[in-house]
Amino acid sequence: MNSRIVRGRESKPPRILLYGTEGIGKTTFAAGAPKPIFIPTEDGLGELEVDRFPLCEDFESVLGHLTWLIDGAHDYETVVIDSLDWLERLIHDHVCAQNNVDTIERVDGGYGRGYLAALAQWRKVLSFLQKLRDDRSMIVLLIAHAKIERFEDPETLAYDRYMPRLHRSSAALVTEWCDAVFFAHWRFALRVEQGTFGKSRNIPLSGPNADRVMRVSGGPTCVAKNRYGLTGELPLDWNAFARAVVKEG
Known about the structure:
It is a single chain. By secondary structure, the protein is an alpha/beta fold. The chain has a domain at about 15-185: 3-Layer(aba) Sandwich (Rossmann fold). It has helices at about 25-30, 60-70, 85-100, 115-135, 170-175, 240-249, and strands at about 15-20, 35-40, 50, 80, 140-150, 160-165, 180-195, 200-215, 225, 235. Strands 1, 2, 3, 4, 5, 6, 7, 8, 9 and 10 form a 10-stranded mixed sheet that branches. A hairpin with a 5-residue loop joins strand 7 (about 180-195) and strand 8 (about 200-215). Helix 2 packs parallel to helix 4 and helix 4 (about 115-135) runs parallel beside helix 5 (about 170-175). It is globular.
């Protein structure tokens, strides 16, 4: 066998994108990861007792924090960007400033060229995160909000599905790079309420009858995937994810 050929699994820290609806507990999930350090691009950490950099108000601040984590002396084990959709705004502002325009749609004359320019900045961020994973053995955990978008399925009729609240090109780049993409949502119990004229409606029950879960494998309703052999849903909890990965491994 050629000496340059490597056989077997390569165990490296995971690269995870967790997206979901507002208030579901995405940031709390990230806070449960091993020794996390947050790079906040939005003011959403609230009262969580976690280590964080100052709120990033421009793209250069994000790159500066990532550079410090790559080169600096620290014992953090997880880097968290919270959130990607606000990071995208900083990237767009950066590209607009470079091109002296006021909107990403007008960069280089328009026709989508602004989003292509933004992809170059996204690749820069991912290269920094890759160095943290490879050289500092850090888990990469990216948080994003969710949106509903029409999906034109070539094999059937078009339908709506959840996906990260990013431009399509940047969403495709990030989801391909990640080892796992999880969709966080509420799993409700439903109560059927009978109305007038024989009509009925489904009432979602909250409180103890609702669970915070994350979809770990893809389907028609959402974008999700993983490279750990996980299927279905898991509780929205870091320890539940870690136990599932160990079990499958």
